[in-house]
Amino acid sequence: MYRQVKKYINDRMPFPDDDLEKALLFSDIQYFKKGDYILRAGEQCRFIGFLNYGLIVSTLIDETGKEIPCGFTKNDCFFTYTEGLINNAPSHKHFIALEDCEMLMLQKDKLPLIFSLNPKFETLFTKMLADDLRIALLAEQNIRICSVEERYLHFIETFPDVFNRLPLKYIAGYLGIEPPSLSRLRKRLMKG
Amino acid sequence: MYRQVKKYINDRMPFPDDDLEKALLFSDIQYFKKGDYILRAGEQCRFIGFLNYGLIVSTLIDETGKEIPCGFTKNDCFFTYTEGLINNAPSHKHFIALEDCEMLMLQKDKLPLIFSLNPKFETLFTKMLADDLRIALLAEQNIRICSVEERYLHFIETFPDVFNRLPLKYIAGYLGIEPPSLSRLRKRLMKG
DNA sequence: GTGAGAACTTAACCATGGTTAATTTCTCAG
DNA sequence: CTGAGAAATTAACCATGGTTAAGTTCTCAC
């Protein structure tokens, strides 16, 4: 049950197996069905999750009420809403299961206990925040300076496994275009 | 010379004047002429600055070599490139003075000295990072879900002082459109 | 296997924004 | 004050992407 999360953590910052086991005893496990809301906009995120299997999309609601996909979390990745965790801010986004999900969940009130097990856990936590910042800045840069075509190709290249499990309408939304427009783009790329 | 930065810090987290004075002794002061590069893309940012007066634009370079404005720093605000400060990563952006600038500069190697003066300085530093993350995420959201018109109005409302000091072509670039297109938008808003 | 609904593609039409160039307005050094 | 260069606006043209609707393919529960 803990094999995947242990690998993820050890790949980034090695820990004695004993510490990991103790820390993971504070977590519980939760299942979501395809289509379930994992977190709704307006709700507060009080946990850090690790996705053993499944796929999650986060969506923003625009002024017309339309849901815009703006990010994906796949199996073997951590899942949380950092802003909420740090500042108790309510989520701006919906998080919806696109596949059945199994998630290891650590409630935020357990964090101090884990940090006291081994202070390196707090360093790991900070590292994950810094990664979040880097990713958010890259996402903004990406939107500003890249054409839709470049962003489409970049997405396929960077997340081929996610791409193959995702209905194209989510890709279109993520790129900020409509499905017919994505079809045109794909046709153009086939020919070229 | 330190009045403004002291006010900025005390507004967010009050410090004994003595600690602030000692900390600020580690800083030096630097002047930039309109048009000067404060930091070039590829260079590493090794300081935290506080802008006593002036205006700075940050720009990204797209695939055609065009410079895209993506942010502004005005007087009485802190200035740095967070990614570089934390991870020693080179800047992705140019930072250019749009007006003559006076900047208080604290070299990054002085940070541990200041943190040891009063540990609350480290808390303040972390708070500034968390703010950076919040702003980056909001910027991405803003681009994804708001129309150009909304973003234009939002910019005027949020940064009226910056708007009034800024040639419109920078606003156009920041919004991701060309100057003629911004002219059309402004004309439409006049009539409506 | 079959049928219903979702996903994807295609086509036709239209509105919006890019591009270019001309014109006007602004700014500031001399 | 004057003239040169930058900034902003305007107009005309064109390419691109949104919209709608129709048609095709896919998926999956029964």
Secondary-structure map with pairings?
2 copies of one chain form a homodimer.
Chain A lengths: L2 H10 L4 H8 L3 E5 L4 E3 L7 E7 L1 E7 L5 E8 L2 E3 L2 H6 L6 E4 L3 E7 L3 H7 L2 H26 L2 H11 L1 H5 L3 H8 L3 H13 L1
Antiparallel strand pairs in A: 1-8, 2-7, 3-6, 3-8, 4-5, 4-7
Chain A binds a DNA duplex (30 and 30 nucleotides) through helix 9.
**Sheet with most strands of chain A:** 4 strands, antiparallel
Encode the helix/strand succession of chain A as letters.
Answer: HHEEEEEEHEEHHHHHH
Helix content, binned percent of chain A: 40-55%
What is Rg of chain A?
Answer: 18 Å
| CATH H level, superfamily name of the domain at 3-117 in chain A | Jelly Rolls
Structural class of chain A: alpha+beta
Tell me how many strands of chain A there are: 8
Average of pLDDT of chain A: 93
Explain how this protein is built.
2 copies of one chain form a homodimer. Chain A is α+β, with helices and mostly antiparallel strands and 192 residues long. Chain A has a domain at 3-117: Jelly Rolls. In chain A, 49% of the residues lie in helices and 23% in strands. The first copy, chain A, has 9 helices and 8 strands. Chain A has helices at 3-12, 17-24, 82-87, 111-117, 120-145, 148-158, 160-164, 168-175, 179-191, and strands at residues 28-32, 37-39, 47-53, 55-61, 67-74, 77-79, 94-97, 101-107. In chain A, strands 1-8-3-6 form a 4-stranded antiparallel β-sheet, covered by helices on one side. In chain A, a hairpin with a 5-residue loop joins strand 4 (55-61) and strand 5. At the A-B interface, helix 3 and helix 5 of A face helix 3 and helix 5 of B. The structure holds a DNA duplex (30 and 30 nucleotides).
